[in-house]
Design brief:
By secondary structure, this protein is α/β, with parallel strands linked by helices. The chain folds into two domains: about 200 residues, Rossmann fold (3-Layer(aba) Sandwich), CATH 3.40.50.150; about 80 residues, Orthogonal Bundle (DNA polymerase, domain 1), CATH 1.10.150. Helices cover about 40% and strands about 10% of the residues. The protein has a seven-stranded mixed β-sheet with strand order 3-2-1-4-5-7-6, sandwiched between helices. It is globular, with a radius of gyration of 20 Å. The protein starts with 12 loop residues before the first helix and ends in a 9-residue tail after the last helix. It binds S-adenosylmethionine.
Amino acid sequence: MAPEAAPHIRVLLGAILRAVAPVSGTWLDGTFGAGGYARGLLEAGADKVIAVDRDPLAFEMAGAWSAIWGDRLVMAPGTFSSLDELAAAAGFPSLDGVVLDLGVSSMQLDQAERGFSFLRDGPLDMRMGQAGLSAEDLVNEASEALLADILYHYGEERAARRIAKAIVAARAEARISRTGQLAGIIEKCLPRAKPGQSHPATRSFQAIRIAVNDEFGQLAEGLQAAERALKPGGALAVVTFHSLEDRIVKRFLQDRASTGGGGSRYQPEQAARAPAFTLTPRRAIAPEAEEIAQNPRARSAKLRVARRTETPAEPVSRDVLGLPDIGGLT
Ligand SMILES: C[S@@+](CC[C@H](N)C(=O)[O-])C[C@H]1O[C@@H](n2cnc3c(N)ncnc32)[C@H](O)[C@@H]1O
């Protein structure tokens, strides 16, 4: 039985469906979660949706409703970094559309035992895929320098060094194994939040979650896998929830939709080339005030949509995407 969890309210689905209309053919939902996007795509006219998620919980929860879609909904557990391989293994080597709705689901966040939340005490876990190195491993074993880099680069935490130092001092006394313990250590390093400000541990928890799940590496690989799998005319729609994620998507699409030349601080002068995507529309789409009022999680969401051209896929370097080059535990 799936554990008790609040349903995940889907963000920006209406905007996606408007931007990619008419929906038909085979789509891949790389972040299946509670299935809100997959259902929306099937209802809008997709023949098939391949549902990818790294969390077994997503498929466990879909058990209750997925059968009504029969073979139009194909479950493909795994990470979206290899979405082209997952789609090919399911029998669909080329796709009409790919959607990604980044980050954690409400079900993951709300379950204390998953360890994502500083508001609900639980084991310090944070693994979306429920396997591999946990946040507890990272927090107790990473060097002080690596912890500071993670907090700074993945959380934009200005007090990164101070917090890393406090973590190292605390773990010398006792292993840090609970979210509440870690939140307490971080809170002591920072001024109390003023009304309307986010909890002091917000940025650090985001940073540790990104590191544990290699979220930026997954995103960089996933965008390139989508480029390889999409048919000419196929749509890519990505919803992000913070500026660091959006920057990676924006840089990827700017690079792959460019015709070369130019040159910038991040990119050397390039030879003229045919773009692999066209941006549709050019800028990111934000939620309407009404959606934000109904679902506060939508507040920071941004949607970017692009259409694949016939140009063959090419790899994109980490530099172009602006991925911070920081080490890992392994
Ligand atoms: C924000 S939720 C998606 C919610 C979904 N759109 C819905 O309407 O229910 C993100 C989901 O993506 C999954 N996820 C995050 N990163 C992933 C990755 N790299 N590969 C596969 N699944 C991932 C998470 O486990 C989570 O279930």
